[in-house]
Design brief:
The chain contains seven helices and nine strands, in the order αββββαβαββαββααα. Helix 1 packs parallel to helix 5, helix 2 runs parallel beside helix 4 and helix 3 crosses helix 5.
């Protein structure tokens, strides 16, 4: 017996919106891929067999952290073990799995996507490729969990990509960033061997991002800026640092 269809109604709508956005960006094709978001001890996750680029909230199922059905009428994705494993172990708020073309192509060739651009530091740096295993199996879930250690993304050998974050919006942004980075790598590799940022260069980027509050907007200083209200807190920067250091905001 399931709870009312109103359970996690906002989260179900958000998952559907995220899938349609990913579909419009070309990262989701047909029924391939899945998305989830956690709220407390419940997870809203895409249903198996649904066309993701046209997903509606009623095609998002709600389960608990053991996989028991809470709301919805459709069976959840076959990759449910992967989603629940990440949510339980990483305390993640959202997970996105795609068969995005560039990410999948890279996952068919490399054992690791190296840090060729400083924006990859937003995912934790070099992106590991989890060994191949049949979709929907515990073996695949375990290998991806290991590849995600300290990272916001992982590639899945001959399969696709996974990103996770504290919020669904950020998990989607991570998926878009990963696809862009894989495309950059592919184009660079056609011309030669891509250069990789070493540890010193990566650390310098992190320090510069923190110092400059990289990723936030800044008003132009006026001649006599008004003093901030005593209760106002400064907007936190979003520097490109590994997810393990970000915390779950």
């Amino acid at each position: 017996m399931t709870a009312s269809s109103s359970a996690l109604s906002e989260e179900r709508a958000a998952v559907a919106d995220a899938c349609r956005r990913l579909g419009a960006e070309g990262l989701l094709i047909g029924t391939a891929g899945n998305v989830s978001v956690r709220a407390g001890d419940l997870v809203a996750v895409t249903a198996t067999g649904a066309v993701l680029a046209e997903l509606t909230p009623d095609q998002v199922t709600v389960v608990d952290l053991d996989g028991a059905l809470v709301a919805g009428t459709l069976r959840p994705t076959s990759e449910l073990d992967l989603h629940l494993g990440v949510h339980r172990r990483r305390g993640t708020g959202a997970l996105v799995h795609t068969h995005a073309p560039m990410a999948t192509a890279v996952a068919c060739v490399l054992d690791e996507l190296p840090c060729i651009h400083y924006q990859l530091l937003a995912l934790g740096g070099a992106v590991r490729v989890a060994p191949y295993a049949t979709f929907g199996t515990p073996e695949l879930a375990e290998s991806v969990l290991a590849a995600l250690d300290g990272r916001g993304a992982a590639l899945m050998a001959n399969h696709g990509a996974v990103t996770h974050a504290a919020t669904l919006d950020r998990a989607v942004e991570h998926a878009l960033l990963l696809e862009w980075a894989c495309g950059v790598y592919q184009r660079a590799a056609v011309m030669g061997r891509p250069r990789v940022l070493d540890e010193r260069q990566q650390q310098a980027v992190i320090e510069a991002a923190i110092a400059r509050e990289y990723g936030t907007t800044h008003p132009v200083a006026s001649a006599a800026p008004a003093a901030p209200a005593a209760s106002a807190a400064p907007r936190s920067a979003v520097p490109p640092v590994p997810p393990a250091q970000e915390g779950h905001r």
